[in-house]
Amino acid sequence: MKTIDDDMRLIVENSRLSFVATVCSDGSPNLSPKGSMRVYDDEHIAFMDIASPNTVGNLERDPRIEINSIDFLRRRGYRFKGTAEFREPGDPVYEWLHAWLLDLNGPGYPAIRAILVHVERALPILSPAYTFGGADEGDLRQAWARTYLADLEEE
Prior knowledge:
Blueprint: H1 6-15, E1 18-23, E2 29-34, E3 38-41, E4 44-49, H2 53-61, E5 64-71, E6 76-87, H3 92-105, E7 113-126, H4 128-131, H5 137-154
Antiparallel strand pairs: 1-2, 1-5, 3-4, 4-7, 5-6, 6-7
Domain Pyridoxamine 5'-phosphate oxidase N-terminal: 5-121
Organism: Acrocarpospora macrocephala
Protein name: Sugar ABC transporter substrate-binding protein
């Protein structure tokens, strides 16, 4: 049975920015934005270590991780909990993600190592607009798109 379904894949791809939570050595949380998040297969998500010394240090000590991917226009997303492992240059996961990163950002973009997360649990994240307001996803998407566009026009 797959852990990551088609809707989860869509959200990760559309979110453009996900957030990774790890545990610091003193037990406090570390939260870090990641723009390289991709679904690798039905049980794994991967992202690139581009400039992530705190995230990497925390994962070297404790591989537990949580990833939050939110499609801000749809006002919903997913929380993925699992364990991380490092994949170095030459590994198929690294090469797959690195090729995507270079296509997106151009040659020379830094990529130290890939981090592959085995997703053990995935839970939905929903705006209260769905839970309490009976919102329609299409209507929410249009309303938030207008809001963000209006903000850009004011700048």
